[in-house]
Amino acid sequence: MTRPAATPTVQVDDDRFRVTEWRFPPGAETGWHTHTMPYVVVPQTTGTLTVETETADPFAMECTASVSYSREAGARHNIVNDRDEQFTFVEVEAKAAPGS
Fold first, then answer.
1. Structural domain of residue 54, as residue ranges?
2. What is the arrangement of strands in the sheet containing 17-24, beginning at the earlier edge strand?
3. InterPro entries of this UniProt entry (predicted)?
4. What average pLDDT score do residues 91-97 get?
5. Which pTM does this prediction carry?
6. What is the pLDDT of residues 34-91, one digit of tens each?
7. CA 84 to CA 74: how far, in whole Å?
8. What is the DSSP letter of 57?
9. Under 8 Å between Cβ of 91 and 37
């Protein structure tokens, strides 16, 4: 990573879900990662984040506080806060249901 790291705080991690709050100070990034589970993101801040992928040029993703979005497992990216203010979101990852 060439930027400061975003701070993840795991709030729930049980057999069904992992819920993580991500706090991005100005200029911070998640670092490259691959999602191994389907997930939902609930932005706590309105603004734009930069999404870096291995297959396309970086692009701006508009986020609105409390307006969730979902993605399938397999996404590989780095999320960057290019803003001058902190950005926060909550990520809910869905684990396999017991017995499935």
1. 7-91
2. 7-13, 17-24, 87-94, 39-43, 69-71
3. RmlC-like_jellyroll, RmlC_Cupin_sf
4. 90
5. 0.91
6. 999 999 999 999 999 999 999 999 999 999 999 999 999 999 999 999 999 999 999 9
7. 30
8. -
9. no
Q: How many domains does the chain have?
A: 1
In a domain, residue 30? The reply is: yes
- The residues with which 33 forms a beta bridge, in sequence order, are 77
Cα 8 to Cα 43, 48, 89: the distances in Å are 14, 19, 10
Tell me the CATH number at 37.
2.60.120.10
Across 45-62, b (16+ Cβ under 10 Å) vs e yields bebebbebeeeeeeeeee
